[in-house]
């Protein structure tokens, strides 16, 4: 296992337009930095006895070779931040995340955000266990992995039922959010492994409510300002509960960020736009959709069509505009077919 106290090594790969000088100058006083072309870095990977701790990979030039390299970095379990051109759109971000990127960054990016993304990887348990987790997983047989996946799903499903049981009006909520999230994720083009991670993360998105007082969760009427502040702590509580599960870091991130808003007015951290992790953006829409289409003590449930219109009305303010368009297409398709979403859809989605 790598010495986690050693000076960190960062590789800047395939950079153009002066990005390598900018990043090297910014990062060099904090860690060791090496600059490579894609071709040179391939050679380095085959010959190296010590891999970099983090790779910044520029996706704006040779896209095809960049994705081939990203696949190799994923196999070697080297955390990678893909640098994308500003305004490129959701498709390339999805492809990078599905292809193994730990995070994406749109260029140009502020110094503070670059350092924040770098520090998040280096200073969290998630990163510190990546190498160890890789070696553990490599030793497992396929049959063992299948059994572990089944056991994981059963445990998380049971736990989600326990979470929802704290409030009679939200029973089944986490399971439905996982269902809607998985369907939306598939429509976005996520691969099977990513869909599984998204499904598990959605099941656990409200785990922080375990720490909420029953009187607040079950209050039949409108919450007071003080009670609302209490409820708004559940994302950070959830994050603290899940952050030690290093095999699935997305679970803790979804728990923390699923109430962030596209326009930056959400909580707990006020993130905006693509700084909100993709899975959290997906779960945010699924969470709101289920809340609107479920009965509450103070109102009747909305129809799918009514909820779809509400989601569309929040495009670009509460929700990711591109994800809203995709979710609206899904909702309209189910409405036009006269179909109700069931758990069979999850099975067909993840099959």
Automatic annotation (TrEMBL):
SMART domains cross-referenced by the UniProt entry: HDc
The name this protein goes by in its record: HD family phosphohydrolase
Database matches in SUPFAM superfamilies: HD-domain/PDEase-like
Protein keywords: Plasmid
All copies of domain HD-GYP, residue ranges: 148-343
